[in-house]
């Protein structure tokens, strides 16, 4: 019986992973874009990205574009796998095979 | 463990964020296209206003550069779908049909003068913008209806300065609309 992934299940982290997973492999999203998409505050988003990064679900790359710092977050292969399993588990729960 | 209601809500959240991401990607590309067309339309209207004798060349050049720019934007930003082709012949056909129909109406069925041409093409273009917006996002509808309304106001109420009015309304409107789309 598959278990829900506690790291991904938190609502904001679920949104972050959903957005990153919808991108082509190795494509990432800038921090500012993720903030706009999720509606989260800087601090909250940063903390949840860190949790996902510690779990190995996302990679975080910091670079300078001109003089502006830019943080790009990308879903790793591990993260994509975990997200796919999490979604499959949610679907199983809806189908009544779990819960 | 959560129940099926909570699981449905989580899946709905996922769908919602994916839709928002797709819309923001679409707006980003549409914004580039709108700003590009806006600059060209602004320049062509300005030429029409300052040197009417060169207007036809300015408009032909702006149309070719406009379509070329759209194809370039498409090639530089290929679709993410696995079966999506970067160069889509349908995009070229859409523009061929668009211009063919416009030419048929303005030069074969009717014989439009400069003022009528300067009104027809923007509102014809904005009609497609508005229709596309019904599927792809309210920003297209707002820009399409806004520019069409201002174009008609110019047609009925602005005198000799109509091309100058259109430079700001159509060209400027597309540039501002494009920049606005990036902020949504």
Automatic annotation (TrEMBL), chain A:
InterPro entries: WH-like_DNA-bd_sf, WH_DNA-bd_dom, WH_DNA-bd_sf. Pfam families: HTH_34. Residues 12-94 form the Winged helix DNA-binding domain. SUPFAM superfamilies: Winged helix' DNA-binding domain. Coiled coil: none annotated. This is Transcriptional regulator. It comes from Bradyrhizobium niftali.
